[in-house]
Amino acid sequence: MIPKHTILLVEDEVEPAEMLANFLEMNDYNVLMAHDGRKALQIIDEQAGEIHLAVLDIMVPHVNGKEICRAIRKHPVLSDIPVIFLTAKDKEKDEIEGLELGADDYISKPASLKLVKTHIESLLRRQQPQTSKWIQYGDLYLDTTGKDLYNKNKRVDLTSTEYSLIELFFQNPKRVYTRQEILEHIGGDDRFVFDRTVDVHVKNLRLKLSEASELIKTYRGMGYGMNRDIITP
C-alpha cells in the first residue's frame, strides 16, 4: 500500500479551508490545517517529518504566507518540498515575488477543488523521492541517511563518535545504555576506549546541543539514554 501524502494547508477563511481539507482527505491525502501563520509554524516545528507539500494563502494573520514559505525553504527537513501559493492576490508582481521566494506554483482564488488537487498531484509526481530518513525530538532533527544533526534550522558540527552516540539514543529512545554497551557501540576493533571515555563524549555532545542537552539523561548507576520525562507524552 502506498503511504498517504500529507499536505500542510494554511488558510484563514475557515469554511473554504475545511471544504478543501475534506476534499483532499476524501482523495486519500492527510491534511494538517492552520488558520494563521503562528499555528502553521508550530505545525512545522512539531511535525516537519510528516509534511510532503504545503498550500499557503499569502494573507493569513500573524505570520503571512511569504514568511512561512521562507521558513520552509530554510528548514532542514522541508527545504525541498513543493509549495503552492493559493491566494486572492492576482497581480503579476505578487506571483513573481512568490515564485522568487521559492514557491513552485501559484493559484488565484477562487479556484475549484479539483483544480487545486490537480496542481498538488502534478507537483508530487515531479517531486524526487525523499532519500533522507529523519528522526525528530523537540528542536533536534537527525538525518540518519546524511549523518547530520540539526538544532532547529542549524547544523550541529559533531564528530563521528558524537553522531554515533546521538543516533544510538534517538533510534532507541526508551533504552538506557550502560557505559560498556556504549563502548562496544563506539569503540571498534582498533581503538582504545575506557569507561571515562563515554562520559567525555556525552559531556561534549551535551555542550554542542546547548539548551537541547536536557534530552540526554544520566541514569545514576545505570548509564545514559534519552530523557523519558521529556520525550514521553
In short:
The chain contains nine helices and twelve strands. It has helices at residues 14-26, 37-47, 65-74, 92-100, 113-126, 160-171, 179-186, 195-209, 228-231; strands spanning 6-10, 30-34, 53-56, 83-87, 105-108, 134-137, 140-143, 148-151, 154-156, 176-177, 216-219, 223-226.
The total domain count is 2
Oligomer: single chain
Low-confidence region ranges? none
SSE topology string: EHEHEHEHEHEEEEHEHHEEH
Name of the top-level CATH class of the largest domain: Alpha Beta
Overall shape: it is: elongated
The largest beta-sheet arranges its strands as: 2-1-3-4-5
What's the total helix number?
A: 9
What's the main sheet like?
Answer: 5 strands, parallel
Write the layout of secondary structure elements.
Elements: E1 6-10, H1 14-26, E2 30-34, H2 37-47, E3 53-56, H3 65-74, E4 83-87, H4 92-100, E5 105-108, H5 113-126, E6 134-137, E7 140-143, E8 148-151, E9 154-156, H6 160-171, E10 176-177, H7 179-186, H8 195-209, E11 216-219, E12 223-226, H9 228-231
Parallel strand pairs: 1-2, 1-3, 3-4, 4-5
Antiparallel strand pairs: 6-7, 7-8, 8-9, 10-12, 11-12
Description of the structure:
By secondary structure, the protein is an alpha/beta fold. The chain has two domains: 6-126, Response regulator (Rossmann fold, 3-Layer(aba) Sandwich), CATH 3.40.50; 134-231, Orthogonal Bundle (Arc Repressor Mutant, subunit A), CATH 1.10.10.10. 41% of the residues lie in helices and 21% in strands. It is built from nine helices and twelve strands. The chain has helices spanning 14-26, 37-47, 65-74, 92-100, 113-126, 160-171, 179-186, 195-209, 228-231, and strands at residues 6-10, 30-34, 53-56, 83-87, 105-108, 134-137, 140-143, 148-151, 154-156, 176-177, 216-219, 223-226. Strands 2-1-3-4-5 form a five-stranded parallel beta sheet, with helices on both faces. Helix 6 crosses helix 8. The protein is elongated. The mean pLDDT is 84.
